[in-house]
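Section 5: illustrative case.
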């Protein structure tokens, strides 16, 4: 099942399977990408709750999501995504820092970056909080403008 919600970074498609969120997609939506989505169901309880929590996040009323998640990926990707969940609201970490947290060296930064870019549940699994070692914004599947807006939303709310 899936639904679409409006947000400050454009429409988001939320996808649920088996009672868990499996994807959050930015526009333009890519239907022929092979991901199963099912039918649109704006009343599905998991999707309604995800929409509520994302709306609260964008309103700066929610700092931690509490949603059932089931991202599809390799074992390494899932380890990276699990580590991303440890980056707190308003905080950032570099690709190298994530590699170190996983018990790897800086040489794994590129692999971490690739896994980060494949995160199917952005915002909730906060891949936007990962930045370059020198503090610069680096690639983001939703585009650097969206990444900047998400980081600004969290930073501005801290002051």
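Designed sequence:
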């Amino acid at each position: 099942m899936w639904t679409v919600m409006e947000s400050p970074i454009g429409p988001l498609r939320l996808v649920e399977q088996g009672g868990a969120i499996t994807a959050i997609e930015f526009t333009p939506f890519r239907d022929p990408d092979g991901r199963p989505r099912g039918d649109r169901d704006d009343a599905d309880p998991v999707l309604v709750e995800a929409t509520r929590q994302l709306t609260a996040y964008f309103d700066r009323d929610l700092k931690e999501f509490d949603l059932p998640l089931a991202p599809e990926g390799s074992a390494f990707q899932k380890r990276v995504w699990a580590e991303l969940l440890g980056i707190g609201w308003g905080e950032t970490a570099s690709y190298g820092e994530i590699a170190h947290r996983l018990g790897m060296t800086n040489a794994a930064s590129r692999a971490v970056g690739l896994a980060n870019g494949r995160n199917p549940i952005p915002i909730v699994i906060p891949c936007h909080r990962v930045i370059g070692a020198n503090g610069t914004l680096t690639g983001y599947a939703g585009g650097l403008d969206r990444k900047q807006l998400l980081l600004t939303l969290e930073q501005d709310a801290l002051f």
